[in-house]
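Can't attach files on this board, so I'm pasting raw text. These are the components:
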Amino acid sequence: MTQPLPSYQEKSAAVKERFAELYQRPLELELNGLSKTFTKPDGSPVQALLDIDLKIHRRELIAVLGASGCGKSTLIRIIAGLETPTTGEALLQGESIDGPCSQRGMVFQSYTLFPWLTVLRNVMFGLEATGHSPVTAESEARQWIELVGLKKFENAYPDQLSGGMKQRVAIARALANEPRVLLMDEPFGALDAHTRADMQSYLLQIWRNVDVTILFVTHDLDEAIYLADRILVLSPNPGQVQEFIENPVPRPRSPEQFSSPEFLATKEHVENLIHPPEARSEPVNLPILKLTQQDDRVE
Amino acid sequence: MTIAPFLILGKRKKWLEIRKDLSPRAASLLTLASFLTPLALWCIISYTPFLWHPDVKLDIGSSGATVYTAGDQVGKDYYPQLRQEAREANDQLLSASQAGEPVTASSRANIKTLRALGPISVRNGLLHEGQLTSDADIFQLWRQAAEEPAVFRRIPLSEENQEIARQNWTILSDASETYDKATFPKEKLLGLIPQGKPANPVYLPAPHEVLLTGWEQWTRPAEDGKPTMGARLGQSIGIVFGGFLVAALIAVPLGVIAGSFDGISKLFEPFADFFRYMPAPAFATLLVAVLGAHHAPKVALVLIGTFPHLFLMICKTTRLLDRSLLEAAQTLGATRKRLLAKVVVPGILPQLYNDLRIALGWAWTWLVIAELIGVKSGLTEIIDTQGVRRNFDQVYPVIILIGLIGFSTDQLLAWLRPRFFPWVPNARKPSIFTRLLRRAS
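---
Top answer:
Structure tokens for the assembled complex are below.
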């Protein structure tokens, strides 16, 4: 590398100003001393999350990163109301979270579309569940389907859609309820690289136009840095906040920024947090025993 | 046509690959073969006399020490002995008459010997069933047997029986050319030697016999209070579907609830698990004592036989529903009632449909035992009464009928499934029978 990378903490004036404005916004989500202990089938306890404190402001886009098993999914499931914390509390706009509700929409990695409903009926599901009349539900749902660009497919069954399309329906379905918070648990993890990149720009466009705060769990560093305002890095065993990083990459985001100095600096820092250099294993040298020596110069 | 499967076999090694689907053409051919092979086997065994045929079916019975009437079957090993006994009896009569001391017999015994020519004459179309006791007609047949044996065309008389006919006719015609009770000879007539054809055991009637008897059963009018075949089938279907519907009516809601709520599951499932190991027929006498001897205990037996399994299967089906669908619905604001009605039920419906199909199959398997308890009824009454009388040609059509009805109901339900559940991915794949039908048209 010819030029040394800047520190990930160095921010341009515009970015600093943006964060200052962001912190002025009202609090959307607050976690106070949140811990979660699971009991394994053999009866022994597992500490999944320990003492998480977090303040998230309106319309922030937060990425949650961490090695697998660090409790990122547990964290997001507690906010969704699908798990209850062992100690501590989670607040949405100052009110304690108690069970799932339409205020906190969720998008899962496994799509979770209802296979027996068409795209239109899937998107209508939440609207009907929250008391909209079928007529309003249908016209509302149509608008959301148009927003994610699936107008032509509104009568298709989920099974007939590609992975990316399914996830767009899932996003439309969650947003149709106009939730305060959109929780996304590795939503693009099952998609191929190309679709994944498309979905990331989709998500940024949607987020720009919809009044919603997004919590985005991922294990892909590029994805986290490309999307997020702030990146929450969790350390495993037990899951604790390792660092809450202010992303120095300016907005609006575009794929060219993947090679910008701020991006690379942030990526290097996060990489070191998640996989510390001292913990990295030596490159594997296979014993040459069974490997035949060939003269073809492949490398 | 017969060579086609082998051509495919030769062309494609795919036939021996593990878990590889065959081409639709090959699959259709094999499906056809799976039905035609047993049928062909049955035909070959039935219609190739040298292949098995361990019995002899008598056209002429025996009236010696052991009485067999025409139509009876005797073992292949015993048949020569039976004939030998008849010959020896005749030899004694002959030697006595040569010695000048002809044996006399009661007219009743001689009439019996006379009538022994009846059945084979009927089978040759020379006599009606109703004339079997008309001695005047049979008397004339003896003349024909002696003078023009060629009229016994379909089933000819053996040489030795022709000779016996000639000798007897000499005695008979000496007295009178026509039957006359008064002048009927007292000299003992020679007995016909048993004769017959190789036959399979009575428990394996030939396909055409089964087919004809089946047709005859369906066209037989109701007589002395016995129901027609259609009415019997109606009774049997009533028992199968009655038991199945009651089982489904209880098992579906209970299974869905138990599969959804762990408390209900723990309360009901362990006992159902225990109960299903108690064989339903073990309750037969109890059911008759409580519910009477007619329709009710039979329906109840089918119910007992299917309910516990169906209930447990529906519990499992409900639990197999992807939990994340429920979580997604909850984050969309669905209440518990809506989760059950709009997620659990529609989510398991395609599998529930298949569960019910399987349960209907079980219900059919309980039918025969159910109809045997109390007052025998329906199709089973034929199976039981005719089977005991060894009229197996009456039994097979009924067994095959039960199989056909059960199988075709299931195929119909399988064919309907993609129409009920268009979203199920492999439901759009045509069933093997749809493909066969398409090939045929």
